[in-house]
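tool_call: predict_structure(chain=1)
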Amino acid sequence: MEMNANIETAESVKEKAKAAFGFDMSSALDLVARSDFDSDEAYLDACARAELERSSPEYRAARSRLKAEFRTRQEEQERKAQGEAYRSIRAGVSLDSLDQRNIDQEAADLARRDLAANRIAASELGATIERYAKELSEKKKDSKASNVLFNAMLRGQM
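tool_result:
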């Protein structure tokens, strides 16, 4: 189950513009620790070097590329974690008697429709009901597992 919601707000557009122009970066004075240098001049030189690196087009291109790659990796890890969570939830899902009764009734109705439409022979009615019941059971289990996962994501548990 994959959900992507891209909602553009004024704030998100401003943040993207700041990132595109490099205004989202912190000051070079914040990047360099003052305690690592003996004199103010050495500290200022290190800050200037850091600022020049950040303001160069090569640095910004590399940073943008690495940022996109980092996001892709994070998304991939999140998808894997969600997939594993879904599989563990799916393994624990069971159908109650009401669900099973509804599935059996729907499977019988579908098989009778097939029989009435001459898609199956009368001798295949039992096997067809079982096949439909199995398919509908799997669909119901998938639906329940998806609902549990979605609710957990909404609650911030995933």
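agent: The CA atoms of residues 39 and 87 lie 58 Å apart. Proceeding to next step.
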